Amino acid sequence: MKKYDINKFLSHVAIFLISYFLISYFLISKTTGSQQDREQKIGTPKAKKKINFQLKGEVKSKATGQIVPNADITVTSELQQKVLTESKANAAGQYEVTVPKGVDVEVKAQAPALFYDAFKTIVMIDDTTDVVKHDFILPSELSLRINFPSNKWDNPYPYVLDDNGSQSYQTWQQAISSVSEDIKKYKDYIAKVILIGHTDDVGKDEYNEDLGQKRCEFVLEELEKRGVTSEIMEARSSGKTELLTQNPGEDKELWRKRCRRVVMTKMMKR
Fold first, then answer.
1. Terminal C-alpha separation, the chain
2. Are 173 and 226 in contact (CB under 8 A)?
3. pLDDT (tens digit per residue) in 161-193
4. Nearest to 71 by CA among 107, 104, 101, 120
């Protein structure tokens, strides 16, 4: 009878067991991986980045501080010059609109008896901001600070000034277009739009009276070009008789720029 080598036997058993465990581990790992892959594909999807944000706030009157109910809210793409969203404030003067992320937009609030207020904004796609708050303050008078060189009335500088005399983002053409759109939107409510031209303190009274009138008529003619009927507009000049108060420490030339303006007021139908 042939003698069996126990060491050889044990060696074979060891090789078998090692092979078994290696194959089993491989098969289990592959199965688990496949299951995880399937779970990722058919399980709960990953949260997507929000592509919009909510813009909300109140609309108030600059003159009274009171809320303005039912104001019109418009969101416009700056690049495409296309209206993206139109909405209204509620009876309590509160509004909320959905705005796309990654788009430069101008948001405007307006109401029949008042002029508009607008601002520009953008929230980038990767920004986690979900809500932006902004209150609109609608003026009863609109000071259109088209910045004219001294003694000029028909050749404005490219950009209008804000209330502080700083150059704004709006060209004078854009500013007049915004005013014309506002007037045309509420033409059925408006009896008259009064335009008053103002100058700085340089020069004689008679000269500034004439200069203020010409600047005012320049704005009126530009409004007419944009479809506002001359029948509801009235242009007159105050010359240098209604100069603005110079702020403490304000540069005199900056003050004079602020003084050169055309003020517009809506007279509503009764």
1. 128
2. no
3. 888 888 888 899 999 999 999 999 999 999 999
4. 107
